[in-house]
Amino acid sequence: MSNLERFRSRRNLYNPVHPLSQIHSEINRTFERFFENPIWNESMPKMPAINMKEEGNQYVIEAEMPGLRDEDVEIEVHGGQLTIKGERKQESKKEGEHMYIEERSYGSFYRTVTLPQDANLDHITADYENGLLIITIPKDPEKEPKRIKINRKPSS
């Protein structure tokens, strides 16, 4: 096959009537329609990023919540699960203001964490400072796992 024939056969792939070219165009149109969906144009609320650690006789949960006030956040405990929820409200736009880039997310959010069995749910405290929510959960020594001794029966 000469170079000219190879060129012509490759060129045919980009011919709008060629079947592979039609499939390629349809895939491109599908992706364009997918990203034109209005859901991609709205800011999606994000769950707060958290760290949970054990510090001696307590557990500590740190949740990042920059730009929120403490009255915008609620903490609930139910059935061994701790839920942090709140709402980030969008600031109203000023007349004549034109936004060039808008990446901050707004709306309701929540995050649920399953607490360890020995967490004392009656003495949980929470502090909020500089966009960081710190939840302290003491351990209940009575709920700590107990070892069960295995009795050996004499063999018969």
From TrEMBL:
InterPro entries per the UniProt record, alphabetical: A-crystallin/Hsp20_dom, HSP20-like_chaperone, Small_HSP
CDD domains assigned to the protein according to its UniProt record, in alphabetical order:
ACD_sHsps-like
- Per the database record, which ranges form the SHSP domain? 41-153
Gene3D superfamilies, from UniProt? 2.60.40.790
- Classification via PROSITE patterns: SHSP
Tell me which SUPFAM superfamilies the record gives: HSP20-like chaperones
Similarity-based family: Belongs to the small heat shock protein (HSP20) family.
Any idea what this protein is called?
Answer: Hsp20/alpha crystallin family protein
Q: Which organism is it from?
A: Thermoactinomyces intermedius
